[in-house]
Fold this sequence. Notes:
Elements: E1 8-12, H1 31-47, E2 52-55, H2 59-72, E3 78-79, H3 89-100, E4 104-108, H4 112-120, E5 135-140, E6 146-152
Parallel strand pairs: 1-4, 2-3, 2-4
Antiparallel strand pairs: 1-5, 5-6
Helix pairs in contact: 1-2, 3-4
Amino acid sequence: MSPRELPLLLVRHAVAEDSHELGDEARALTSEGRAAFRHHARRLARLTPLTGIVTSPLVRAVQTAELLCEAFGLSSVEVHPALVPGSGAHKRIVKLAHQLGPGWALVGHNPSLERAAALALDGEELPDKLRKGMALALRPLSDKAFTLAWWAAPGRPVRRPGDKR
Length: 165
C-alpha cells in the first residue's frame, strides 16, 4: 500500500468511567471498554497499517491510543494539544490531520472529532454518529479535503460508503 493509499484514522476514545474524583481529565476506560476496544484495535490493525498515533492528553484517550499502539505494533504514542477538547478543537484537528497525512491515527473526543470529520469531509455526510471507540478512515482527496473510505465501531461490522444498512 503506497503512503497515498493509507487512510488517516479519526478514533473516538473507548468507553470510559462516567466520572472520576480528580475530574473529567482523569476518567479512565472501564474494564469492559478496554476489553472491547482491545479486540476492535486488533481488527483495525488487519484493515490498514499505521505509521503513528497522536492523542489527546486526557486519560481515556491516552489509554485508547495505547491499545491501538499495541495492536498495530508501534512503539509509542504522541500526546498532542490539538486534540484537547474545547472551542475550535475541530479546526485544530483538521489542521493536524493535513500536517500528519495518511497513515496516522488521531485519538480524541466528541463533539470535536465529529465536527472535525464533517469539516474534513467538506460537506460529505457522516454515515453514523461517532460512537465510543469508533474509527473513521479518511483518504485525502486534495490538500484541503478528505473522503470517507470506511468506518468501524467496536462489536459492529466494518462499513463502507454505499453499504446498505
